[in-house]
Design brief:
9-stranded mixed β-sheet, 405 residues, alpha+beta, 2 domains, single chain, 14 helices
Length: 405
């Protein structure tokens, strides 16, 4: 009996995108992913253009059906058009963090949802999944890509990028955060084959878009006989690069402790040193053992673990290298707290949130090595453990579901 050929892990597709003859400025019509848009931000985006992609990402008073109708209206009026060739879409983001400039690149493609080759790294929440399930039923499309990383370098991707980066892009724009975005269409069959082969056996970790992956897989199971290639999802696929940054996620928590009580309890396990705000992040990055920063009142401290043997309480060694996990398992239980936890990626913002009994715990970012190690075992990281920066822009390409035949 002849076995069926393995389907490619990624494949090109005919994307739906804004019509260049009708939309002159991408910066006015693109937007961040739906889950980072506040109500105030949404109002600003929609004032920017009647065709801002947020009109399709987030429901208004008309509900999900109205979004589906709006998508069809934009297609009918040719605000959105379909490509006539199957393409990969090479996507580059150039951005600054501090004084340093980074570049990150990968391909927007269709990714086969083969769960044994794709590893999530975070748990999902039910409310966003309910929202996205209603949305995918209304629009019958993947509106935004999930973000996946190959755990090993893909040399072909770099070669293709170096070849195309000197060419004129299909789209080029600067977004509201000052990030430069460029997109090239790859439609040459030889280039497509090279990229497909390079990723064909790659193990991938989901960096962002866990909810979208889960609802797309659920939609596939329920509708696989209705549409073509529904076992594939729109994805940005990349590999390990210098520009693949994970920002820290700090915690601001109200403490039911006096400063003396806190210092006494912490002092049993940590060397506590008073530092300046400006020097905290630098000293934290150089700490050899588990460490975290503390902002309480107007004072800043560095706390470094005295005895690494304490980490032995965490049975899985992979988690010992994840500061957010160690913090929640070993540090937070030491103190009395009240209320919930607030999160921020900025030290300055964390310090500004310190009022009353609130203290800011400054954590180091997760490393890619730790994320890969934990997720490859089928384990998940605590929520708010990673923040891959920058977010992928929504509105560059859409993948619409095509009926069989």
């Amino acid at each position: 009996m002849v076995s069926k050929a393995r389907k490619p892990s990624i494949k090109p597709f005919k994307a739906t995108h804004f019509n260049p003859s009708k939309v002159k400025s991408y910066s006015k019509v693109v937007c961040p992913p739906y889950d980072v848009i506040s109500k105030a931000h949404l109002a600003c985006l929609r004032e920017r253009s009647q065709f801002n992609f947020s009109h399709l990402l987030i429901t208004d008073k008309g509900g999900y059906a109205a979004v589906g109708r709006k998508l069809n209206e934009w297609l009918k009026s040719k605000v959105l058009i379909d490509d006539d060739k199957d393409c990969f879409y090479l996507y580059e983001q150039a951005f600054k963090v501090g004084k340093k400039t980074f570049k990150r690149y990968g391909v927007l493609s269709l990714l086969r949802m083969e769960k044994k080759d794709i590893f999530p790294h975070e748990y999902t929440l039910s409310a966003p999944k309910v929202d996205r399930k209603k949305m995918i039923r209304a629009v019958k499309a993947n509106l935004s890509p999930i973000f996946c990383i190959a755990v090993k370098p893909v040399r072909t991707l770099k070669n293709i990028y170096l070849s195309f980066s000197a060419k004129k892009p299909f789209a080029s724009f600067k977004d509201e955060e000052g990030i430069h975005n460029r997109v090239w269409k790859i439609f040459d069959k030889r280039d497509i084959e090279k990229i497909s082969q390079a990723f064909n056996k790659a193990k991938l970790v989901i960096a962002d878009g866990h909810h979208r992956f889960e609802i797309s897989y659920d939609y596939f199971l329920k509708n696989k006989d209705k549409f073509q290639d529904l076992d594939y999802v729109l994805a940005f696929v990349t590999d390990v690069q210098e520009g693949l940054l994970i920002l820290p996620t700090h915690r601001v928590i109200s403490l039911d402790e006096s400063k003396d009580s806190f210092i006494r309890k912490a002092g049993k396990y940590f060397k506590l040193k008073k530092v300046t705000k400006g020097g905290l992040e630098n000293k934290l990055s150089k700490a050899k053992r588990f460490a975290f920063g503390l902002c309480w009142g107007k004072e800043f401290f560095l706390l470094e673990l005295k005895d690494a043997a304490i980490l032995g309480k965490i049975k899985d060694k992979s988690y010992r290298n994840l500061d957010t996990y160690v913090f929640h398992q070993l540090v937070l239980p030491l103190f009395k707290t009240s209320g919930g936890i607030k999160y921020t990626h900025s030290l300055n913002e964390a310090a500004s949130m310190v009022k009353g009994t609130a203290a800011a715990f400054i954590l180091r970012p997760a490393t890619l090595k730790a994320v890969f190690s934990i997720s490859s075992k089928g384990c998940r990281l605590p929520q708010k453990s990673t923040y891959f920066y920058p977010k992928l822009t929504s509105g560059i390409v859409v993948r619409r579901f095509l009926k069989h035949g």
